[in-house]
Amino acid sequence: MKKFFTFIIFIIFSTSSFSGSHHSHGHKKNKEIDHDYKIGKIKIEKPYTFFTPNGAKVSAGYMKIENYSNKQDVLQSVSNVSFADRVEIHEMTMENQVMKMRPLKKGVVIKADSELYLKPSGYHIMFIGLKEQISKGKEYKATLNFKNAGSVDIFFKAVGRNYHPDKNHHKHH
Ligand SMILES: [Cu+2]
After folding, report:
1. What is the CATH number for 132?
2. CA 22 to chain centre
3. For residue 37, is it within any domain?
4. 116 within a domain of the structure (yes/no)
């Protein structure tokens, strides 16, 4: 049996989830928030993380990953993170009505010709042992390592908890 992490979930995850089945592909560009990356047949859209309250030890990163290849790919690991002691790829699961998260040691599969959302209460990148607090508006670098497509440097944008990647085009703070 694998060990489960039992961090205090409500601090890390909002209850908001994605609604609807269609998503714009960034035609309405917002320089502040929209930022995409490409490596091979993989496209990463709008990586983000929530800014943290003082003293937070963990944070999570989210994004949309699109695989334009006719072969599946695997996000095997995340590396090159200077703001945390270590990084893991996690999955949220419900166990006896308690949300728990589990590290995915082999990474997460992105099926051929499909898209995968890393989002609150789903798959996410876990930053463990924060060396500094995540500040709103700042960007945090990481390297995503894909089995087939290779490695790509991205920046997680630190946003507030009301941020939603598809609904935030017209919000200003
Ligand atoms: Cu986690």
Report:
1. 2.60.40.1890
2. 19
3. no
4. yes
Query: What DSSP assignment string belongs to 27-44?
Result: -S--TTT--EEEETTEEE
Q: Which runs of E-coded beta strand occur in the chain?
A: 36-39, 42-50, 58-67, 73-79, 84-95, 98-103, 108-110, 114-118, 124-130, 139-146, 150-159
Ligand 1 centroid–CA 28 distance in Å is 31
Q: Is residue 88 part of a domain?
A: yes
Count the domains in the chain: 1
CA of 145 to the centre of ligand 1 (A): 18
What's the CA gap between 15 and 28, in Å, rounded?
26
CA of 23 to the centre of ligand 1 (A): 25
Answer whether residue 170 is part of any domain. no
Lowest mean pLDDT among 69-73, 78-82, 90-94, 126-130: 90-94
Structure-model confidence comparison of residues 35 and 85, the more confident one: 85
Q: Give 102 Cα–ligand 1 centroid separation in angstroms.
A: 7
Task: Please report, as a single letter, which amino acid is at residue 43.
Answer: K
pTM across the whole model = 0.77
